[in-house]
Amino acid sequence: MNTAPPHLPPRVRAVVDLDAVRANVHALRARAAVAELMAVVKSDAYGHGMVPCARAAREAGASWLGTATPEEALALRAAGDTGRVLAWLWTPGGPWKQAIEADVDVSASGLWALREIVAAAAEAGRGARVQLKVDTGLGRNGCQPADWRELVDAARAAESTGALRVTGIWSHFACADEPGHPSIEAQLAVYRDALAVAEAAGLRPEVRHMANSAAALTLPQSHFDLVRAGVSVYGLSPSPELGVPADFGLRPAMTLSAGLASVKRVPGGHGVSYGHHYTTPGETTLALVPAGYADGVPRHGSGCGPVLVAGKWRTVAGRVAMDQFVVDLGGDTAEVGDEAVLFGPGDRGEPTAEDWARAIGTIGYEIVTRIGPRVPRVYVGV
Ligand SMILES: *Cc1c(COP(=O)(O)O)cnc(C)c1O
Question: Does 1 appear as a known binding residue?
Fold first, then answer.
């Protein structure tokens, strides 16, 4: 973790506001009043830094943390987290035993996983906590409804030997960010049927859960015992069609900025960056921003990515290179070292991650998650 004070002149840095993370968790808990909140901290907390964000989310009342990979869950344990953690993306080989020993809830979508869990629990000498995932229509991971009874019966049989306890039954939406999409009610119906099958077989899960951020914010009938909130914890809206973050009381936690590495006058007709896809229309001032695609600035932002420099929105001039890109300041000036803000919460007039997403045809999730390991994360509100 980089702890340089926020006032030091940076090359490039991502300032992450942990007060915003805490406030977002509070806002989400208020929305999902009867359900517990799982803060999803996979992929380095969507690029924000897993351990500090997990800690902030816990402080704000997240009773669960969620990760994709077991390695992420084990990293939380290594950092001292002792609360409930679910890891859901497994491949043969686990590491099941390490996860069981670390008190991580594991997930099974099929018999192969259940078999490996039972074997690992025997090796570990303790029962595993297992959550069964049903595919209610996403078509990704999860047990098909046709195979569900077999998985449930096998889990119940393993439960009766003490090898494991089924702590959760869960699923994931395909289109929760499109209110009224017919798949939403269809998935909920399949999920309720799967719950009924599990209960009839004698399973008594602690937590039943389906909701991601979009569902946590807009679909109270999907909340059950727990909501799994990811992108909203970091203050992004799951979809611009649903609303902007402020509509849900959310605030973007990350600000990506850099200090200008060069500011210089150039004549008209000067080519800019690889391929000369931009040529200065007249004598002008070019500013060099020392952040590039190696830092996670999308190369697709060439010629279209927004950036606040010298008090105005500018557009990336020419190509984004691996380590740097250029903006044309036109008739304005700046000093070397002045701040260029690629995105942030928007309070200072800077673009947001959503603005970048719109500019390059992706989603805000990808803009923040792709910020690379070369960019120091600087935490405020620690
Ligand atoms: C990533 C993920 C989430 C969180 O989704 P958001 O849209 O970011 O809230 C929830 N559940 C699962 C299974 C996920 O993979």
Answer: no
Three-state secondary structure call for residue 189: helix
For tokens 């690889």, the residue is 274
Is residue 241 within 8 A of residue 177, CB to CB? The reply is yes
Query: Does 133 participate in catalysis according to the annotation?
Result: no
pTM, entire model: 0.96
Tell whether 96 and 214 lie within a shared domain: yes
What pLDDT is stored for residue 6 in this prediction? 54
> How many angstroms separate the alpha carbon of residue 232 from the centre of ligand 1?
10
Tell me whether residue 42 is one of the annotated catalytic residues. Answer: yes
Residue 242 inside a domain? The answer is no
Both 113 and 202 in a single domain?
A: yes
Residue 229 Cα to ligand 1 midpoint, Å, equals 6
- Measured between alpha carbons, how far is 214 from 239 in angstroms, rounded to an integer? 8
- Rounded Cα distance between 277 and 303, Å, is 8
Rounded to an integer, the average pLDDT of 351-365 is 98
Please work out whether the CB of residue 142 comes within 6 Å of at least one atom of ligand 1: no
Mean residue pLDDT across the chain: 96
Q: What is the DSSP string of 223-292?
A: -TTEEEE-GGGGT--S-TTT--GGGGT----EEEEEE-SEEEEE-TT-EESGGG-EE-SSSEEEEEE---
322 labelled as ligand-binding?
yes
218 Cβ closer than 6 Å to some ligand 1 atom: no
Q: Which helix (H) or strand (E) holds 36?
A: strand 36-40
User: How many angstroms is it from 42 CA to the middle of ligand 1?
Assistant: 9
Nearest CA to ligand 1 atom 13: 172
pLDDT band at 2 (very low <50, low <70, confident <90, very high): very low
**Beta carbon of 230 within 6 Å of any ligand 1 atom:** yes
Q: 319 lies in which domain range?
A: 254-380
Among 184, 203, 233, the domain-final residue is 233
Phi, psi of 108 (to 5 degrees): -130, 130
Long-range contacts made by residues 82-87, C-beta under 8 angstroms, separation at least 24?
Answer: 83/58, 86/38, 86/131, 86/168
Task: Say whether 316 sits in a helix, a strand or coil.
Answer: strand
Q: How far apart are CA 163 and CA 350, in angstroms?
A: 54
The neighbour count for residue 116, using CB atoms within 10 Å, is 19
